[in-house]
Structures are given as C-alpha cells and as structure tokens.
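thought: fold this chain, then report.
action: predict
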Amino acid sequence: MKTQASNADFAVTSPASPRLAARRAAFLSAALEVFQQKGFAEATLDDIIALSGGSRQTLYALFGGKQGLFEALVTETCSSIFGKLTPERLASQSPDLVLTEVGVRYLEVVLSPSVLNLTRLVVAEASRIPEIAETYWRLGPGRSRAFLTEFFDRQIERGLFQMADSRKGADHFLEMLSGTIRFQCLTGVRQPPDGAEIREIVASAVAQFLNGCAKA
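observation:
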C-alpha cells in the first residue's frame, strides 16, 4: 500500500470555512468508527461517506483517500496533545512545570476512548498492514518523543539536566507516565482515570524522573 505524496498535505490542511471544518470533522469521526468496526483493510470510502453524509469529491479534496483519513486521525491526536506548545517556547520555563503540563495533556489524550480505540485498531492491523503501524508511529508516538527529546536537549544546554541520551530520556518519561495504566485501559482491565488521578500519576512520574536527571 503506497501513500500518494499529496496525502500528508491533505491530512494537515485546515479548512477555510467553518462549514468545511465541520464536514472534515464528520469525515474523521465516521472514518474512526468504520475503521474500528471493519478494520482498515475492509473499510471502504463508501462506508465512511454513508456514515458521515458527505460527498466523495469533498473527501478526496480534504484527505486524498483512505490513507489520508488515517494520517489525519493520527496527526490530530498528536496536535491535540501539544497544541501551541513548542520546545522553543518552553525552553526557559521550569522543567517540572513543563513536564507536568505536557504529562497531563499527554495522558488526557492517549487515555481518551477515541485514542484507545485508534490504538487498538493499529495493533489489530499491524501484522497484515505494517504501513499502518509505521504511519501511526511516525505521526503519533514518534512526534511526541521528538518533542520531548528537543526539550531535554535544551535543558542540557542550559545546564539543568545531565542525561546521556535525551531520546531514551523521552522514552523513559512517557513510559513512566502511561506504560502500565495505558495497557490496562487498552485491555479493558480498568477504566481510564479521571482528571484527579491523571494529575496524581503525572506528579509522581515528574518527581521520580527529575530526581533521576536533575543536575546537582
């Protein structure tokens, strides 16, 4: 399965009008539901169009096709975590405050029902369609780790962190946040945490992480 060069552009294009933005959101919602019900390979654009009420012409104009729809779903998930946050803007702020804010946003998104369902879809399809897993990683978890890696590099430059490998540091922090609880939620062992529990999880992870990498 090859992705057309223009699909990535379609996936991140912002509609120029509220009406088109609403149509785009309807396509994405329908795509996620159809993907969950049928799997990515068996889902068709006709299924998505029927559920969303849109037109094939508009769908192609916004996303370029089924792959573009999937890429948009993953891209928007990652964008919703960081919003307008950038490593440049955060570089001069207190690391504990930054990691707390990023951690809360991260857990709120990755433990939401829609993202848990998207992750289940990727896992279910990965053996048959490895490109799906690769796209998911590149546009989702990979971007989250790249964001934190750059932030950690800036803290090392400021002399606040001592860290042999900032990429591994990003992996470790995100796993401290979500490793166990995300697996439990994905498998249905427990329900996603509420806001208060998320803040408790983040506070504990930030404290333990900084105790291990803060420069004396």
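thought: worth noting. Confidence is low (pLDDT under 50) at residues 1-13.
final: tokens above.
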